[in-house]
Structures are given as C-alpha cells and as structure tokens.
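Now read the record:
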Amino acid sequence: MANPTPALPANPPAPLPPPAPYRGRLAPSPTGLLHLGHARTFWIAQERARAHAGSLVLRSEDLDAARCRDEFVQAMLEDLKWFGFQWQEGPDCGGPFGPYAQSARQNLYRAAFNHLRAGGFIYPCTCSRKDILSAARAPHAEDEHEPIYPGTCRPLGASHAQPAPNSPPATPSRPAGHRINWRFRVPDGEVIFFMDQNLGAQQFVAGRDFGDFVVWRHAEVPSYQLACVVDDAAMRITEVVRGADLLLSTARQLLLYRALEWLPPRFYHCPLLTDSTGARLAKRHDATSLRRLREAGQSPACLRAHWRVERAY
C-alpha cells in the first residue's frame, strides 16, 4: 500500500528574511589630523564593504566640543578623498540616515538615555576621575581611558535590570553644586562573549575586566559608548571595523545594545599600526599624518604598498 501524501502543516513557518545589505562605516573624530593608522583601518573597512557589494558611511564623531575644530573637519574630508576613500553617505553628500555629524544628533542620544533610565539600567554618579583613580581597584584597570569604577555611587540593592521606582523618562539633569555623570550598571560576573570577524572568539567578564561605565557626561553630552551604539543602530550598520584597542568597548556596547533592545552589528577589529619603536600611532605624531605625507609628495598607493593587510574579505 502506497504511503499517503503527508499533509502540509496548517501554519507553515514563514521564510527567513533576506540578509540585510552590508553597511560599513568610517567614524573619524575631527580633533586633529588623520594619520596612517586611521587610514589603514579605514581602508580595511572600505575593502570589506566593496567585497560585500555594500555601502560605506562617513560619520564625523565631533562630540568633543573642546577639541573638535572646523579646520580638522575640512582636513578630514580632503585627506580621506586624497587617499582614495569613497563613501556613499556622509556629512558632505547627505543620505537617508543623516545628519552625519554627531553634534547634530542630540535628540537621538537623549531618547536612548531616557530608555536606559526608565529601565533602571543607569544611575547618577558624582565621582570625579581623580576619585576613581584613587580607589583600590583602579590600578588594576587595563583600559586607561575608563578605569574600573569601584561602585561608590552605585545604588545598594537595586538590580541593573529592574526599573527604579518613580523614575519616568527624563532628560539628564544636574543638581546645583554637583557634576553628575550617569553610569551603566554592569551585571557583575557575567561573561560577555562575541565572535570577532578577524580575531575570533572574544570574552570579557563584567565587573572584572570593566566596571560601571559612563553613558552621559556632566557637560550634557553622551559618552562615546552610548553615541556609537545609537548611531550605528540608527544608520543600520551591519559590521563595525575598528582598531583592536576597542575590543573592551565592544563588550560594553553589547550590554547597551541588549538594554536598548537593538540587534548589534558584527565586529571586525584590526591590529594597530605602530612606529619603529613599537608605539601605536597617534594624532600627536604629526609626521605620520596624511596631510604631512601628502605635502611631502608621498602617494597613497606607495603608502599602502608597505602595509600587511589581511585579505580575508
């Protein structure tokens, strides 16, 4: 007897949506002249976007009002174009997810701040950087830009995942006589794992490798961690290519993505370019800036020829 034809399910599963088109980004900060280290990381980002037939977005991370200057913005655009970069969206050409300068995106950052505050993920902190550096745990911090916070202002008995009572959404406030920063309360002991597209499996322990970190500063601006997450999500970035010095930032940002209920992008971290002494390049190294190399008659093709760039695109 022939087997009967199996009946189709009453509610067949919906087909999986097609993968999102590749969207990468270049995110320089106009606080000085771009150098060869920036160029190599950005070149890898551009190569990956091209290999995936995707788009490249240029975003000016100009939140540091004290250090960002118009002359550096102009130099950034000129030097990137001279080096051979081509982007499809940016501050000079617009696009559907603008504005493409962080200084003009404050409303998006405030909305994210309100979401985090309403969810009980953040708390106000009056500690100065000096206070944190003098704490017992601070010397063990590996990230010089964000020493591990000792928990001085962390509310007792409150869960980072529970809304604080009587805490509706609000814009950041600063009581008279106090300099208030808002910190994200990390889930102590949780292992933050992610698969880097270049360096492989990565994991960090919250509360040990990094502590409660600032998301909103007393000067009424978001931190790098919050602004970066908000912008990458809003601009629909599918892969973030950046230097390996930001691996720990990725662990922090993954916690923000989860708290904001957003899907994170993939991450690709590049080894840093160093000088002859092994020190990583910095904006203070004027001789390696794209502007000075251009003035000296160097060509982008010759400069790129000296790089050892992975071709795992």
